[in-house]
Give the backbone structure.
Amino acid sequence: MPARVGQRAVAFVLGGGGHLGVSQIGMLRALVERGIRPDLVLGTSVGAVNGVAIAARPTTEGVDALEDSWRRIEETGVFGGSLLTRLGTLARTRTHLHDASGLARALEQSLPVGRIEELEVPFQCVAASIERASERWFTAGPIAPAVLASAAVPGLLAPVAVDGEHFLDGGLVNSIPVGRAVELGATELYVLQVGRVDRPLEVPRWPWEVGLVAFEIARRHRFAGDMAALPEGVEAHVMPTGRSEPPSYRSLAQLRYSDVSNIGERIARAHEASARYLERAGMDTPS
């Protein structure tokens, strides 16, 4: 068990959600503008990608750099390649559409350090172990393999091997790790979810909806349980995305994992909504 954080500790908890994770940038900006600095950052999947960036530089400059990385996502080739290239990768590997080298390069180029323990703020991310069918928390060691493991979406990216064990996306086991933050002693939680928990689920009508709905049931059940089990003295703030209408499960849009359109608008919307929320909650005024 890793060391617990301090007696009165702030945790940023960044959940998974693919391209919807761009909203977390607006939330982070609203938080750091008000001088709210984390003592601990926990991330799952895209939340691990965004979380490690803020753990490296928990400042407005760090948020600026993260936003710039998202705006250049097509240049970095994280989910690049033509349809033929993707199909060629799938035919060759039989398990996934993309090579993870683009994401690995982006991480290495954007972060000032290479190991988790060198980050400015303590950081942990979670991945799903294939061999043990359980969650594995990365608390030390090289950053890139840990974050890649946490973000290894089944079917899109290959399982990531670390120390002889293979890992898939952390969202399979702990999509919004509120319970982990409490376990480590955090008493003030800022939960950066991407909006999917806001919309009631509906009975699936098409094959692609079946897996999405099944996954959502599992992730929401755990999140709801973790929130209901918050001990006395622990305060949790679920940050808003600013979307008037959460993502629908009646649309193939949920499968557009590489959709980076309207990045500025989505960030601005989450920033405005989060700033209003923090003001109403009596948080510190902008610095």
Observations:
- The first strand starts at residue 10 and ends at 14.
- The mean pLDDT is 85.
- The radius of gyration is 18 Å.
- Strands lie at 10-14, 40-44, 123-129, 134-138, 160-162, 165-168, 188-192, 235-238.
